[in-house]
Structure formats: structure tokens, C-alpha cells
Specification:
The protein is an all-alpha fold and 138 residues long. Helices cover 72% and strands 0% of the residues. It folds into 2 domains: 54 residues, no CATH class; 84 residues, no CATH class. 10% of the residues are buried.
Length: 138
């Protein structure tokens, strides 16, 4: 009778999903580049029009918030190793800040669902990954 055995390398187990996501995003990027190669490599009018019409505050705000989120996750997680607290503690303000960034009207009435989502979604994801899938988070 054969026994199935699974071993987990805790040093690299947290890289499984980022690797999958990076691969999917790279494939999507390459698909877009191949599909739109003539517009991308054209005279530059495509890029001027895109940059002129884009929502720069939300675009660059999202980039900055995401970079800060990933930059802080590991140092915060190192305070409580192998618990996923870096993910949990950094995700709540990140989800709230990104939600506020994308609100068109920042009234208290509109901010309450964003705050509820920021307080519920990250702990739910943390619980799911930690206790259901047994994946370590930073």
C-alpha cells in the first residue's frame, strides 16, 4: 500500500501564489503587446492620447500604495514570523486606502462599506490561506 507524503519548504512556500500570478500577468502582457504591436510601436500618438486621458491620481496612487504595501509586508511579518501577521496588518490599511482612492465621492456614507470591506476581507483571506490551505503568509 503506497502512502502519499507532502513536505512543505517553509522558506519558499509563500512564493507559490506570487509565482502563479506573475506568470499569468506576464502572459497577459505578452498577449496585449502582440495584439496591439502596431499601435504600441507607432508614432507615439497612442501613448500621448492614453496619458492625456488617464486618471493619473488613481493610476500613480495605486502604484505607490501597492509598492508601500509590498515593501512593508515582510518587515512587519518578521515581527511575528510564520503567522501571516505581515499580510494581515498591512492588508487592512491597504484595502482601505485603495478603496478610498477609487471612491468618486468620499462621504461618510460611501466610506462605511469600504471600511467594512477593509476590516473583513483581509482577515478572511488570512484565515483561508493559513487554516484551510496551510500556506504561510509574510
Amino acid at each position: 500500500m503506497a502512502r502519499t507524503q507532502v513536505t512543505i519548504d517553509f522558506e519558499t512556500s509563500h512564493l507559490i501564489f506570487p509565482t502563479i500570478i506573475a506568470t499569468v500577468l506576464t502572459l497577459l502582457f505578452l498577449t496585449i503587446v502582440i495584439r496591439d504591436r502596431s499601435r504600441i510601436a507607432g508614432s507615439g500618438a497612442y501613448w500621448r492620447q492614453t496619458f492625456a486621458s488617464m486618471d493619473k491620481v488613481r493610476f500613480f496612487g495605486t502604484l505607490v500604495l501597492t509598492l508601500i504595501y509590498f515593501w512593508l509586508m515582510v518587515p512587519v511579518g518578521n515581527m511575528w514570523p510564520n503567522t501571516g501577521m505581515g499580510f494581515l496588518i498591512c492588508s487592512v490599511p491597504y484595502v482601505f486606502a485603495v478603496g478610498l482612492l477609487y471612491l468618486h465621492e468620499r462621504s461618510l456614507r460611501n466610506m462605511i462599506p469600504v471600511a467594512i470591506m477593509a476590516a473583513v476581507a483581509p482577515p478572511l483571506a488570512w484565515w483561508l490561506f493559513s487554516y484551510i490551505f496551510f500556506l504561510s503568509l509574510p
